[in-house]
Amino acid sequence: MFCQMYNCFIWLLVSSNILFGSLVNDGSLWPEKPSGQRRISIYLYGQYSVEGRPDGDYSAKRRPDWQHPAWGFFAHQQINRLAVFTLPVDMMPFFKKHINFLTDNAVNPDKRRYAVVGEAPRHFIDLDAYPDTLSTTLPRYYKEATDRYGDDTLALHGLVPWQIQLTKYQLTEAFKQRNVRRILRVAADLGHYIADANVPLHTTRNYNGQLTNQQGIHGFWESRLPELFSTEYDFLTGQAEYLYSPQKAAWRAVFNANAALDSVLHFEQQLTDELGETRKFGFEERNSITTKVYSSDFSRQYHERLHGQVERQMRASVKMVGDFWYTCWVDAGQPDLRALAKYQLTEDEQKEEAEEKKSWLKRLFSAREEN
After folding, report:
1. Cα separation of 179 and 105, whole Å?
2. How much is the pTM?
C-alpha cells in the first residue's frame, strides 16, 4: 500500500512539473486558436476537421500538425523526463539541471518529420515488409542491410533500429567533446527514437490500422491511452545499466514491440464489434474546440484487455533511454559532468534554437500519417 502511494506521489510530482512548465513557457497546454471570427470546429478523429461559421458555411480542413504526435507529445516528454531519474549520481546533477530541456525537446524529431529530409523514416521499421525478419537473418548493421536491400528500400520501410545506433554514436561523441548543447540535443533525440522503437504500431506497414479498417488506432494506442491512464502506472524501473551491445538492445526492443502487435489490433476490433461505432467515440472540449475522440468507456475496456501492455512499453522505454544515456557516457570515458551542469544557453544560442524550431513549422513535403 505504501509503495503504491509513493509511486502515485512521484508520478503526480513529475506530472505537475510538466504541467507547470508548459503553463510558464506557453501560457497553456494547447496551442491557441488564431484570433478572428469565431468558428465551431469538430475534429474528425484522425485526419480532417469540419469548420463552420455561425452562418452555416462549413468546409473540410486538415487537422493541424501539432495534433499528429508519435507516442503522443505527452508520453514522449514523460519518458525522457522519467529516464533522468534512472541515472547514477555522477550523471544526475547535469541531467537534473537540464531536465526541462530534455523534456521539452523530446518531441523535436516529430516536429522535423515534414520539414527535414530523411527524418520521417527514422521513427519506424516495417518488419512485415521483409521476407527474412527472423532475428538470425535480417541484417542488424546498416551497411549489411544496404548491401542486401539498398538505401531506397530501407528508407521506404523505416530505419529506427539503425537510427538508434547512429544517434548513440553521436551522443558518445558529444560527451567526449564535452559539448553541452550537443549533448542535450542528441540525448533528447535519442530518447525519442528509443521510445518509438517500443511502440508496436511503429513496426508494421499497418501502422494506423489502414489495412484492417481500424484507421486511427495509432493515435489511440500511443496518445489517448497514456493520457487517460498513465497516472496509474508504476515508473520506478530501477537504475540505468550499461549495455554491452546497444545494437542488440535496439533490435530486441523492436521485436518485442512487434510481438505485441497482434493484441493491439485484435482487441480493438473485438471491442468495436461488441460495442459498435456509437459507443466507440465521444466528444471532448480542448481549447474551445469540440474534438471527436475514442470514448472513455471504450478506452477503459480496451486498456483493460491489453493487460498492462501500454504501461510495459512505456516502462521499457524509460529504462532503455536511461541505459543508452548511461552507456554513451561510459563509452566516452565518463567525463566529469559537474562543471557542465552550470551551462546555460547564450542569448544567441536561444535565438538560434527558436529560429530552427520555427523553420520546422513549414510543411515542405508529405510523410505517412500516423493518426
Report:
1. 17
2. 0.79
Residue partners of 28: CB distance under 8 A and separation at least 6 = 22, 287
pLDDT digits (tens, 9 = 90+) for 116-167: 889 999 999 999 998 765 555 788 899 999 999 999 999 999 999 999 999 9
Which of 160, 170, 133, 168 is CA-nearest to residue 148?
A: 133
The domains located in the chain, with CATH, are 62-360 (1.10.575.10)
- Do 73 and 110 form a contact (C-beta atoms < 8 A)? yes
Beta bridge partners of 43: 49, 291
Among candidate residues 158, 208, 167, the one with its CA nearest the CA of residue 188: 167
CB 122 within 8 A of CB 206: no
CB 181 within 8 A of CB 348: no
Give CA angle at 326 (167, 193), nearest 5°: 35
Question: Cα angle vertex 79, ends 76, 80, to 5°?
Answer: 90
Helices (H), 125-284: 142-149, 151-157, 160-177, 180-197, 217-219, 225-229, 246-259, 261-275, 277-280
